[in-house]
Amino acid sequence: MVVAIDSDRLFPLPMQQRLASGAPGASGLALIKSPHGHDGFLVETDQLARIVASAMQGSSPISA
Predict the structure, then answer these.
(1) Structural domain tally of the chain?
(2) Cβ(48)–Cβ(36) under 8 Å?
């Protein structure tokens, strides 16, 4: 699974979408909504936890 952050300027969403669609075995793309850019995964721990829990249960990718 690829997890993208909507405000990430280092790895913008279109790049993450291409990665998710082209990576062998990738289960899809999940989106974290955050104003914190690339470091959003460090701040938006609740959203990330829901995405990881969903992936571990075999659910399809979600937008947090």
Answers:
(1) 1
(2) no
